[in-house]
Task: structure prediction
Amino acid sequence: MASDVDEKQEVKVFPLAAVETCLLAELTLLAETEAQIRGIEKPKTPGGILKMAIPLDSLSVVDVLCAVEPVIGFELKDSLVRTGGYPTIEAAMTHLMPRLETAWKKKSGVKV
Result:
């Protein structure tokens, strides 16, 4: 028999794996497109693309956030993205993931 207390203790957990997977896939697609446009050869190693020096402009990364919104459950602010963009996928992931989690916690009512 479930009590009222049990129902109110629903634990909200940031969907880290889903957000990370979605963001990484979208940033990778963006980087591959940019590399093709600029004539930059893709690295041969799977992890090489994360560190590949290819500029990811801030407006394109804001577009990438639109793909993350259904996973996170609300509209994200453009200001999460660093003005000027990022030099690598890795830099974008390192900068965005903590900010996405903080935004989710604030929106979900979880103490930051």
Notes: Residues 45 and 52 are 11 Å apart (CA to CA). Residues 16-38 form the longest helix (23 residues). The mean pLDDT is 88.
